[in-house]
Write a structure and sequence with these properties.
Elements: E1 17-27, E2 30-40, E3 47-54, E4 60-68, E5 71-74, E6 76-79, H1 80-92, E7 96-102, E8 109-117, E9 122-132, E10 134-135, E11 141-145, E12 170-172, E13 179-187, E14 192-197, E15 205-206, E16 213-217, E17 228-234, E18 241-245, E19 261-266, H2 272-275, E20 283-289, H3 307-321, E21 327-333, E22 337-339, E23 345-346, H4 349-360, H5 372-380, E24 389-395, H6 402-411, E25 416-423, H7 429-438, E26 442-446, H8 452-464, E27 468-476, E28 482-485, E29 499-506, E30 514-523, E31 526-535, H9 545-564, H10 572-583, E32 590-596, E33 608-612, E34 614-616, H11 621-633, H12 638-647, H13 656-666, H14 692-699, H15 710-715, H16 720-724, H17 733-748, H18 753-769, H19 775-786, H20 792-795
Length: 797
């Protein structure tokens, strides 16, 4: 057998892609990303290279060019079928051609075809896109550069199309045979505090004393084992801003590119008294991916928890944090789906206990990832009166029918809000962000060392906030100027989250150069009004970024409209093509085509085709199962930790019944349940890694209270007698236990407050309902017992 020299795929075929260099230019909360791919044909025959790769779902691809030798060819945007035919014709005539097209199934997957590269020839391919940076819970701005493309599960009976991920050639993430370099230039009106990443970075380099400009680079040696994430932190990030971008000089006035375009960033501030009140109503539906890929580790580091275990712990937190009086259900899905209850049930101690028992037994055992059917089932169920439906979707996002799912969610958007969570590297940004956007919710991504729990609790906080209704936007501009919105109407606003608006400004005012926009809405039956003024004078040299983002926003809205009409509405597809060609921004119906016209002769025989491998975390079921088995063995069994603590001198001594109760409260949330139930057997040699916070949470009642019991004493690292003795006289044992739990949380777990804030609020409400006269005495006694100094006011009592 002859082994090919140079870079080869897993099939021992030479790899023509040699390197990828990425340059990022960030201006405020918008980024322009330029990628240059270097190809080289080291074979003896002309070849065609196919590269399928991910891009952010909201990105607007706006430039594509190729360079062979000293000759550069800038691609044109054309109707997709016409571009494909031109590409084939060029190859047939011996010319070199380059084709870039969006997948038919998902807007975050692209296919690049590099055709008829002669032996020994080198080619450089450049791709530019612009994208908005998303706002994170800690006020950071997130830019994600997808480096990993995991297999997208295609449901049975669906058409895989021509541009989808069925054509993906993949290798394990650490074995990608080409390199990646990345440098970023960051510019902001506000000082740049810091830049963080899930990948090693070279030190941040400030370019001026005001710290409003800086550069940063990815450290050498990136292994393609994760998406590259940059988190940018500015001082005073959440300031409403307006950017008016000048028209393209060569474009016809009255067209999108021939008129100025304004981009508004709004940060609504809600009244504090309204934000302090949380709703006690709602139907909470937790839809959890139980496909086989959820067995995989959250990340590739040592000791990583698997995705399904993290989901179980998150469900524990969510169930404990729900308000009394609401309704809930949990639906697991894979190739099929299963509901915990036939229909949503009222939240009570009984239903919570039933659900928690089922959560403990929940495994990633339902096959492939089919989201469509469980969503159809949910939408077929009537909504409950006075219980707004809130959908929480947890998935690793590896589906192939993204557009079909988004269309279904949009059709039913009026009946619910959807909060989505993309778990692990390579989750589809188009799916996770898309369902949240269509259903007036919020999207979160859990990657690298991220914990799912705090992000889920942030979304729960949004879900429990009073809903913003009756949103209206009014533009106030001189009468000579007309405004054409490019963004769909605002349908959702959250405290601390940005709302973006794009609009085309036609006409010119001879006098007044000021404009403003007024956003009105109703919050908890209170009218609220926010206004932002801006100058109509365009800013200089913005590189048409705002125009392209506005065009992409309008194109995506029209694409959804075209699919809803199933192609039946005249002119929508043609309008998308016209807008795409005019703005130079990609769409589902167009493609970039570049032809390098030489003196080539017609090809003789078969053109060699090489699929450039894409990095994939789990490239085969065997590798996936090996990774997951390693991840499952790493956590310590919780029952064993109880035994070790119980058998040590001076530690808690429990009855058999109490031991069993403690085990039942702990077992199943992310740990193997095959541990011996005999607590008097020899102690394990390794220390447990169980977080006592989850132990405490698992013991809380649905009402918000805790019971004075041995399992609680175990969490507090006390004996049952040590916990009971300091209880003030005339104070109920349950009140005392609940105060102790609160003091412990505020005294030892403040760094995780976002995870337990709602169950603490429930506990405080429950204590207040008991009308306890000696709360101060309880808090003081609790501080003395636990060695804390927590004030009663801090607890909210």
């Amino acid at each position: 057998m002859v082994t090919c020299c140079g870079l080869v795929t897993v099939k021992n075929e030479p790899v023509p892609l040699k390197s990828i260099a990425v340059e990022v230019s960030v201006q405020g909360h918008v980024a322009t990303v330029s990628s240059t791919l270097q190809y080289e044909n080291q074979e003896q025959s002309p070849l065609e290279a196919i590269f399928v790769f991910p891009l952010p779902g909201e990105a607007a691809v706006c430039r594509f060019s190729t360079k062979i030798g000293q000759t550069e060819v800038v691609a044109e945007v054309q109707e997709k079928q016409k571009a494909q035919e031109q590409y084939d014709d060029a190859l047939s005539s011996g010319q070199q051609a380059f084709l870039l097209e969006e997948s038919d199934e998902s807007p975050d997957v692209f296919k690049l075809s590099v055709g008829s590269l002669p032996p020994g020839e080198k080619a450089s391919v450049s791709l530019d896109y612009v994208t908005e940076l998303s706002v994170q819970a800690d006020d950071g701005l997130r830019l994600c550069l997808p480096a990993v493309l995991n297999p997208r599960y295609q449901p049975q009976g669906s058409d895989s199309g021509s541009g989808g991920s069925a054509q993906v050639s993949s290798v394990p993430a650490g074995s990608v045979p080409y390199s990646l370099s990345l440098s970023a230039h960051v510019s902001s009106p506000h000082p740049i505090s810091r830049v963080e990443s899930n990948c090693p970075l070279d030190p941040l380099n400030y370019l001026n004393t005001e710290k409003t400009q800086a550069t940063v680079s990815l450290a050498a040696g990136h292994q393609f084992d994760r998406d590259v994430e940059l988190l940018l932190y500015y001082q005073d990030t959440h300031q409403p801003t307006a950017i008016v971008e000048a028209a393209q000089a060569s474009a016809k006035p009255g067209t999108l590119m021939g008129d100025p375009v304004v981009m508004l960033s709004l940060y609504p501030e809600f009244p504090k008294d309204v934000m302090s009140s949380m709703t006690s109503h709602g139907e909470f539906l937790f839809v959890v991916d139980r496909s086989g890929s959820m067995e995989c580790p959250m990340h590739l580091g040592s000791g990583s928890q698997d995705r399904i275990s993290s989901a179980r712990e998150t469900l524990l937190l969510l169930l404990k944090s729900l308000p009394m009086g609401c309704y809930f259900n949990i639906i697991g899905f894979g190739s099929s789906y299963e509901s915990f209850f036939p229909k949503s049930v009222e939240y009570s101690q009984k239903t919570m206990d039933e659900a928690l028992q089922k959560v403990k037994e929940m495994r990633a055992d339902l096959g492939g990832t089919e989201i469509l059917q469980p969503l159809k089932h949910i939408y077929s169920q009537p909504c409950l009166p006075d219980q707004p439906r809130q959908l929480f979707l947890f998935t690793d996002g590896e589906v192939g029918n993204t557009k079909e799912v988004l269309d279904l969610v949009k059709t039913n958007a009026g009946s619910h809000r959807c909060f989505s969570f993309g778990i692990g590297e390579g989750a589809s940004t188009a799916l996770i962000s898309g369902v949240a956007k269509q259903a007036r919710g919020h999207a979160q991504f859990i990657t690298g060392q991220d914990r799912m729990q705090p992000k889920a609790m942030q979304s729960l906080r949004f879900a429990l906030q009073p809903a913003v209704v009756d949103i209206s936007v009014k533009w106030n501009v001189p009468k000579e100027v007309s405004v054409t919105p490019l963004s769909p109407p605002i349908r959702v606003l959250f405290q601390g989250q940005r709302a973006l608006l794009y609009a085309q400004l036609t006409g010119e005012s001879s006098g007044d150069t000021e404009g403003s926009v007024t956003v009105k809405y109703s919050l908890a039956k209170q009218p609220v009004e926010n206004q932002l003024s801006f100058s109509l004078k365009p800013t200089e040299d913005t590189g048409m970024t705002v125009h392209r983002l506005g065009a992409r926003t309008l194109i995506q809205s029209l694409e959804v409209e075209e699919r809803e009409q199933d192609g039946g509405k005249e002119g929508v597809k043609e309008k998308v093509i016209e807008l795409s060609v005019q703005s130079g921004v990609s769409s589902a119906f167009t493609a970039f085509i570049a032809i390098h016209k030489g003196d080539g002769e017609a090809l003789q025989g078969q053109l060699l085709r090489r699929h450039v491998p894409t990095p994939m975390l789990y490239h085969s079921s065997m590798l996936m199962m090996q990774s997951c088995a390693m991840a499952r063995r790493s956590p310590m069994v919780m029952a064993c930790s109880l035994q070790m603590n119980m058998s040590a001198p001076g530690k808690l001594k429990l009855s058999k019944k109490s031991k069993r109760k403690a085990l039942d409260a702990l077992q199943g949330f992310g740990y193997d349940d095959n541990c011996s139930e005999d607590f008097d057997s020899p102690a394990p040699t390794s220390k447990p890694v169980r977080d006592p916070l989850l132990q405490l949470i698992s013991l809380q009642k649905a009402s918000g209270s805790w019971v004075l019991e041995a399992a609680l004493a175990e969490v507090l690292v006390k004996t049952e007698e040590e916990v009971s003795k300091p209880k003030p006289a005339q104070v109920d044992q349950e009140v005392w236990a609940t105060v102790l739990a609160l003091v412990w949380l505020y005294g030892f777990k403040m760094e995780a407050q976002e995870e337990w804030q709602f169950l603490a609020m429930k506990a405080v409400s429950w204590i207040q309902a008991q009308k306890v006269a000696s709360v101060s005495e309880c808090v003081q006694a609790g501080n003395t017992l636990l060695g804390c100094q927590v004030q009663k006011d801090t607890l909210g009592l």
